[in-house]
Design brief:
78% of the residues lie in helices and 0% in strands. It is an all-alpha fold and 426 residues long. It has a single domain, classed as Growth Hormone, Chain: A. The N and C termini lie far apart (54 Å). This is Major facilitator superfamily (MFS) profile domain-containing protein. It holds the Pfam family MFS_1. Keywords: Membrane, Transmembrane, Transmembrane helix.
């Protein structure tokens, strides 16, 4: 039987059902209310924007008060209220506000989970318990998509918000079992744990959770600023820019995906089923990714990860529209699976490579800059998608996204070249 001190870990499953469900159903709900790609783009970008701010806010609260249980209860209560509010609303501007709230409060569970794992288990078991939270997160994601596929086939999409509310309520009940820990670990300490940071950077869906071990100041971006001036002081600046471009281009695809699927005439239950297939593939690849990286190395694995990522975008942009249903559905599945294949390998390899590149003693600062660059990339990708698609179309949006990822690959090659020349110089 699970010790009482460890039972808190089970909240990960129901809250991930709610979180993944909301991430999928809110864009579908906006389209149901008469919105298009522009409205979906705004909903997603405000969610990511407040999530980035929330990472800073909740991190400061946790560092100062260590009130992990209170933070979870407040955050989960607000998510539950947001789900109920969504059930009763019929106006897109209100959905904008609720999406901002869900971004602000959903992100709180990330740093709390990291701290609870590290405070309730000895450090030689951190890897084991981070792996367990990842498994629970994965099953939560699968559960959300499976429930959504069945529920939306028989019922209205609006009622799915009540499923999310019930899941959040279960998470609240489980969170009440969290007891006071005898020692505290601040976020700066998490920055020194490769287990915790790998969990952060390699598992959350589409990177809509951000972690700022240290809130970066303008001076902390010096390596990027110097590169933009045509000089190089440390190759890590190229890695930051690589991640910015990677998440910018990737989130252009993911922001456009749901409206694109609805434009093809797919039912909500079919959309949920497609995301279920994608989540299953992502779960399988995440278990295989460490073996792939162990055999090929981080640098080579990251380079190879671009091939399925860019291919997936191009398949959506060109091949899907060349065929009629149900044949085009096959290419949709291929596109979505290729995307998560590339993401799983890239994010896992990137998190390990980041640890190897960061100078000792500067983990908090550099991880803060990296979080900031990822946040700006995700936010910028979401916001620009609506403008580009509205002006040109989905094919052009996917084509531009593939060019952005190609730019990310070019920057990564520059990173490798300067890193190699630095070794040679030594």
């Amino acid at each position: 039987m699970e010790p009482i001190s460890k039972r808190w870990i089970w909240f990960v499953f129901p809250i991930n059902i709610a979180a993944e469900g909301l991430h999928t159903v809110i864009p579908l709900f906006v389209i149901r209310l008469g919105g298009g790609i522009s409205e979906v783009s705004v909903v997603i970008s405000v969610h990511y924007g407040t999530a980035a701010l929330g990472s800073i806010f909740w991190g400061k609260i946790l560092d100062k008060y260590h009130a992990k249980k209170a933070v979870l209860l407040v955050a989960f209560s607000m998510i539950l209220l947001s789900c109920v509010w969504l059930y009763y609303t019929d106006q897109i501007p209100i959905v904008y506000a609720i999406s901002a709230l869900t971004g602000l409060f959903l992100v709180a569970r990330g740093p709390v989970t990291q701290m609870l794992v590290m405070e309730t288990s000895p450090n030689n078991q951190w890897s084991k318990f981070f792996a367990r939270t990842s498994i629970l997160s994965t099953f939560g994601s699968l559960g959300a998509m499976l429930i959504g596929a069945v529920w939306s086939f028989y019922f209205d999409t609006r009622q799915y918000f009540l499923i999310c509310a019930i899941s959040t309520g279960i998470a609240i009940v489980i969170s009440l079992q969290i007891s006071k820990t005898h020692f505290h670990i601040e976020r700066s300490m998490i920055a020194h744990s490769i287990h915790g940071m790998q969990h952060i950077f390699s598992h959350f869906r589409f990177h809509n959770h951000f972690v700022f071990p240290k809130v970066p100041e303008l001076y902390d971006f010096k390596h990027i600023i110097i590169i933009l001036k045509g000089k190089v002081s440390h190759e890590i600046g190229f890695l930051f820019l690589t991640n910015f471009m990677f998440y910018f281009g990737s989130n252009m695809y993911f922001t456009a995906l749901t409206p694109f699927l609805k434009q093809l005439g797919l039912a909500d239950s079919t959309v949920f089923t497609l995301y279920l297939i994608q989540t299953c593939v992502m779960a399988m690849i995440f278990f295989l990714a460490p073996k792939i990286i162990g055999r090929l190395g981080e640098e080579r694995s990251m380079i190879l990860a671009y091939a399925p990522r860019i291919s997936g975008i191009l398949v959506a942009g060109f091949l899907v529209n060349m065929f009629l249903m149900p044949n085009s559905l096959i290419f949709v599945i291929i596109s979505m699976c290729l995307m998560v294949l590339g993401f799983s390998v890239y994010s896992t390899a990137n998190s390990v490579l980041l640890f190897k590149t960061i100078p000792k003693g500067f983990e908090g600062t550099y991880l803060g800059v990296n979080s900031s660059m990822i946040g700006m990339g995700v936010f910028g990708g979401a916001l620009s998608t609506g403008i580009i698609t509205k002006s040109f179309g989905y094919t052009e949006t996917f084509l531009i996204a593939s060019f952005v990822l190609a730019g990310s690959l070019f920057l990564f090659r520059l990173y490798l070249r300067h890193r190699l020349s630095g070794r040679t110089g030594n």
